[in-house]
C-alpha cells in the first residue's frame, strides 16, 4: 500500500481549493468534514437547523415564481455560466472529491467532467423543451401538450457521487424553470459547499434570483424536512434502497412527486464466445474501480462453465496486482472505503459468503492499521446465487457464478431485487440481442461488450425494481422536472360536445 498524506496536509489542500472556489469555511459544531484517506476529521461545520431549512424552502419557492416565466433559453445562460465555472475549477473540485469521497484522481476529474457535460446538455435542452401537437377528433380544434416548470425540486444525494448527482438534477431542473434545495450526504459537506458556491457565482453573474438554489447541511433529519414539505414539488433522492423505502411513501402520502435512484446489484454475463481480453478489462474496471462504491459497480459475474476457470484465473492475477492506497497518488487504482463501517460490512459479507458455500479466490483483507479503511478487492466463487449475493454490499466484492445455458444465465441475472445496470460479453449477435430484448436483462441499463459502470450523461440513467424506477440525466428525463398540460383550443364558433349533446 502506498504511503498516505497526513490529515493536516489534506486540511491545507482542501482549504486552498475552497479558497480558490470562493468558499469561506465557517467552522462550527453538529457536522464534521472528514477524509476517508486518513479516517480523520478535517473541520467541524454547523448543520442547518430545521427552521433554516423551512426558510430556505420558502425562499426557493419565491425564486421559482420569478424563474418560471423567464424564457428557457435565458435560463440556459445560467447553466452555461455554471459549466464555465466548473471548467475553471475542475481541478479544485476534483481535489475536494478525492479528499472527502476518497476517489482516485482520474475518477474525481471524471466526476467533474460529467458535471460539465450535463451543463452542456442542459444548455442545448433549454431550446428543446418540446411539447407535441396531437390530431384532434373535433373539426376546428387544436389539441396540444405544453410543458411548464414544476416548482421546488428537493435533491437528496449520496456520498459516492457527491457532486455529479447534484449537477444532473440541478442543471436540468434550472433550465426546466425550477428552483433547487439540496441536501447532500453528511459525509461530503465540503464538496457541497464548493459546488453550491460555484452556482451562487453563476447566479450573481447572470442576475438570476439568488434563492434559486439553497443548500441544507446535515444528516437525514434535515432531509426529512425536505421530504415532508408540501412546497417541494419533486423529491429526487439518490442513495440506498433503505432510504428510498422511507422517502418514497412519505412523499407519496402528500401526493408529491418522487424520483428514486437507489441501490444496484449489477451483473455481467460472460458467454463462451466472449473476447476474454476485453472482458477482463471491463470486469476489473467495473468491479474494483471506485473501490466498489458505485451504484453501477459490477457485483455478480455470470460465466459460462467452459470459460469460467480460465476467466477467474486471469481476474485473480490482475486483482493481485491492483495498486491500493493514497487516491492522490497517480499510480493508485483503488482508494479507501468511505468509513470503517463499510469495511466491516465487507468483512461480514465475505464471512457470510463463505458460510453459504463460497470460496475467496483473491483479496478480501483489510490493509494498514487504523486510519483509512483500505481493503483488497475480492473475487469470490459461489456455488449458487445465495442470500448474500442477492444483496448490495457497498464494497468491492465480485461474486462469480457459472451457467450452462443462455436461459439459465438470464434467469440468474434477473433473480435479484435490484435492477440498475447489466452487461454481456459475447461475440454471438443473437445472444447479444436476446440479452437486450423484452425477456432479456430487466435492468434500466443493459450493455454489450462493455462493463456495467461508466454511463454517459446523454442517456437516461436509472433502474427498475428496488433501484426505484427513476430516470435522470439525458434523453427525455427532463420531463420529470416539469408538469404537462394538455390544451384544447376551439377556433370555430360552434361547440362540438361529445355525442352531439346540447345543453341549450
Ligand atoms: P444513504 O441512503 O445512506 O444516504 C443517501 C442520502 O439520503 C444522504 O444524503 C442521507 O442523509 C439521506 N437520507 C437517508 N435517510 C433519509 C431519510 N429517511 N429521509 C431523508 N433523507 C435521508 O446512501 P449512501 O451510503 O450515501 O450511498 C450509497 C448508496 O447509494 C448505495 O446503495 C448506492 O447504490 C446508492 N446510489 C445509487 C445511485 C443511483 O443512481 N441509483 C447513485 C449513487 C448511489
Automatic annotation (TrEMBL):
Record-linked PROSITE patterns: ALDEHYDE_DEHYDR_GLU
Pfam families: Aldedh
Superkingdom per UniProt: Bacteria
Residue span(s) of domain Aldehyde dehydrogenase: 31-484
UniProt EC number: 1.2.1.3
Keywords, alphabetical: NAD, Oxidoreductase
Active site positions: 261
The protein's assembly and partners: Homotetramer.
Family under the similarity heading: Belongs to the aldehyde dehydrogenase family.
Official protein name in the record: aldehyde dehydrogenase (NAD(+))
Amino acid at each position: 500500500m502506498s504511503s498516505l498524506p497526513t490529515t493536516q496536509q489534506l486540511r491545507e489542500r482542501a482549504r486552498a481549493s475552497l479558497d480558490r472556489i470562493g468558499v469561506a469555511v465557517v467552522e462550527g459544531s453538529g457536522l464534521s468534514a472528514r477524509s476517508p484517506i486518513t479516517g480523520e476529521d478535517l473541520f467541524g461545520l454547523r448543520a442547518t437547523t430545521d427552521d433554516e431549512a423551512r426558510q430556505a424552502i420558502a425562499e426557493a419557492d419565491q425564486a421559482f415564481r420569478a424563474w418560471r416565466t423567464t424564457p428557457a433559453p435565458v435560463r440556459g445562460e445560467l447553466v452555461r455560466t455554471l459549466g464555465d465555472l466548473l471548467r475553471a475549477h475542475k481541478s479544485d473540485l476534483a481535489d475536494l472529491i478525492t479528499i472527502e469521497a476518497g476517489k482516485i484522481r482520474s475518477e474525481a476529474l471524471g466526476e467533474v467532467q460529467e458535471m460539465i457535460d450535463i451543463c452542456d446538455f442542459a444548455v442545448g435542452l433549454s431550446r428543446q423543451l418540446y411539447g407535441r401537437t396531437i390530431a384532434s377528433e373535433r373539426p376546428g380544434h387544436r389539441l396540444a401538450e405544453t410543458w411548464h416548470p414544476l416548482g421546488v425540486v428537493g435533491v437528496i444525494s449520496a456520498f459516492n457521487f457527491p457532486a455529479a448527482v447534484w449537477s444532473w438534477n440541478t442543471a436540468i431542473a434550472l433550465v426546466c424553470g425550477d428552483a433547487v434545495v439540496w441536501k447532500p450526504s453528511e459525509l461530503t459537506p465540503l464538496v457541497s459547499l464548493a459546488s453550491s458556491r460555484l452556482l451562487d457565482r453563476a447566479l450573481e453573474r447572470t442576475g438570476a434570483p439568488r434563492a434559486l438554489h439553497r443548500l441544507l447541511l446535515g444528516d437525514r433529519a434535515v432531509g426529512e424536512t425536505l421530504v415532508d414539505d408540501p412546497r417541494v414539488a419533486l423529491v429526487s433522492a439518490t442513495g440506498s434502497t433503505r432510504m428510498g423505502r422511507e422517502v418514497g411513501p412519505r412523499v407519496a402520502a402528500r401526493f408529491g412527486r418522487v424520483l428514486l435512484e437507489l441501490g444496484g446489484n449489477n451483473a455481467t454475463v460472460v458467454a463462451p464466445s466472449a473476447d476474454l481480453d476485453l472482458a477482463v478489462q471491463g470486469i476489473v474496471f467495473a468491479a474494483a474501480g471506485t473501490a466498489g462504491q458505485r451504484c453501477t459497480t459490477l457485483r455478480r459475474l455470470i460465466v459460462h462453465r467452459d470459460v469460467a476457470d480460465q476467466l477467474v484465473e486471469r481476474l485473480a492475477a490482475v486483482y493481485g496486482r491492483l495498486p491500493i492506497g493514497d487516491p492522490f497518488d497517480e499510480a493508485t487504482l483503488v482508494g479507501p472505503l468511505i468509513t470503517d463501517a463499510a469495511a466491516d460490512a465487507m468483512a461480514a459479507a465475505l464471512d457470510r459468503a463463505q458460510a453459504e458455500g463460497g470460496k475467496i479466490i483473491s483479496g478480501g483483507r483489510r490493509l494498514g492499521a487504523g486510519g483509512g479503511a483500505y481493503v483488497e478487492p475480492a473475487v469470490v466463487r459461489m456455488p449458487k446465487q445465495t442470500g448474500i449475493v442477492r444483496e448490495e454490499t457497498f464494497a468491492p466484492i465480485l461474486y462469480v457464478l457459472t451457467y450452462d445455458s443462455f436461459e439459465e444465465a438470464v434467469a440468474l441475472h434477473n433473480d435479484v431485487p435490484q435492477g440498475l445496470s447489466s452487461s454481456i460479453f459475447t461475440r454471438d449477435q443473437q445472444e447479444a440481442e436476446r440479452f437486450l430484448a423484452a425477456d432479456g436483462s430487466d435492468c434500466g441499463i443493459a450493455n454489450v461488450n462493455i462493463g456495467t459502470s461508466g454511463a454517459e450523461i446523454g442517456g437516461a440513467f436509472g433502474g427498475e425494481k428496488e433501484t426505484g424506477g427513476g430516470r435522470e440525466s439525458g434523453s427525455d428525463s427532463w420531463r420529470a422536472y416539469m408538469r404537462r398540460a394538455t390544451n384544447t383550443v376551439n377556433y370555430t364558433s360552434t361547440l362540438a360536445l361529445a355525442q352531439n349533446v346540447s345543453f341549450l
